[in-house]
Amino acid sequence: MPFLWFLLVSQQPAPRPQAPQDQIAAQATSNPPNAKGSGTSKDRLFFTLPNFFTLENAADAPPLTSGEKFKTTVRSSFDPVEFAWYGLQAGISQARNSDAEYRQGVEGYAKRFGVRFADGTVENFFTKAIFPSILHQDPRYFQMGEGRFFHRALYAVSTIFVTRSDTGATQFNFSEIAGSATAAGISSFTYHPRNERNVTNALNIWATQVAFDTLSELLKEFWPDIRHKLSHSGPTASSY
């Protein structure tokens, strides 16, 4: 166990020197602007999905206040694209007749949409705002941006278990693990179908959310590389 912790912590990137101002200016068009007056971004995965908690090459980014954590979570969770994303999930669920208790038709689709939206939103608030504010942990993803694929991928996965405190110290990511577990418990025993209100289903939801968040961290790490290939632009610049 100590070896595993050492391996995960060792993946955390060290602060890197700032790029020259003329280089930053030249690259400005290829780097998504960050939200004015805060340590968050305006980036979007695949130019659509909100990616506001991700910073590129920003090891020295200023800490977020609790207000900023909640504000950015609201901005991410209620973005119009999120409604379309959950609508697509609900459509797939209805086509597969998942949660058969909801049946078909408009009412069945609305119930499936409500569950998908609530699951995602509740989990976002617990892992990005509530727990990070209580525990003084940083909910942002700091992209490594260079190195071998395996090293960067291992770093991305490690952030599910290892995070930074608001003061920059390395800590176990209670916000992600405990936050997603709390969200899974709330969703399972409140608004999910009655036949799913049990510990087994809560654990399944928890595992699914952590797995999805792990995949999300991988996408966040390599999205700038994908964006560069899609836009044929230069390397991204440091920004926060």
List the helices and strands and how they pair.
Layout lengths: L1 H8 L11 H7 L16 E2 L3 E2 L3 E3 L9 H12 L2 H16 L9 H31 L5 E3 L5 H10 L3 E3 L5 E3 L1 H15 L10 H33 L9
Parallel strand pairs: 3-4
Antiparallel strand pairs: 1-2, 5-6
Helix pairs in contact: 3-5, 4-5, 5-7, 6-8, 7-8
What is the gyration radius calculated from CA atoms? 19 Å
Total number of β-strand segments?
Answer: 6
Strand content: 5-15%
Overall residue-averaged pLDDT value: 83
What proportion of the residues is helical, as a percent range?
Answer: 55-70%
Alpha-carbon distance between the termini?
A: 35 Å
Major beta sheet summary: 2 strands, antiparallel
Uncertain parts: 1-7, 14-33, 236-240
Brief account:
It contains 8 helices and 6 strands.
Keywords:
about 240 residues; mainly alpha; two-stranded antiparallel sheet; two-stranded parallel sheet; 8 helices; 6 strands; about 5% strand; disordered N terminus; disordered C terminus
Description:
- The chain is mainly alpha-helical and 240 residues long.
- It has one domain (43-52, 64-231).
- The protein is built from 8 helices and 6 strands; from the N terminus they run ααβββαααβαββαα.
- The chain has helices at 2-9, 21-27, 66-77, 80-95, 105-135, 149-158, 174-188, 199-231; strands spanning 44-45, 49-50, 54-56, 141-143, 162-164, 170-172.
- The strands form 3 sheets. A two-stranded antiparallel sheet has the order 1-2. It has a two-stranded parallel ribbon with strand order 3-4.
- β5 and β6 (170-172) form a beta hairpin.
- α6 (149-158) packs antiparallel against α8 (199-231) and α7 (174-188) crosses α8 (199-231).
- The two termini are 35 Å apart.
- Residues 1-7, 14-33 and 236-240 have low confidence and may be disordered.
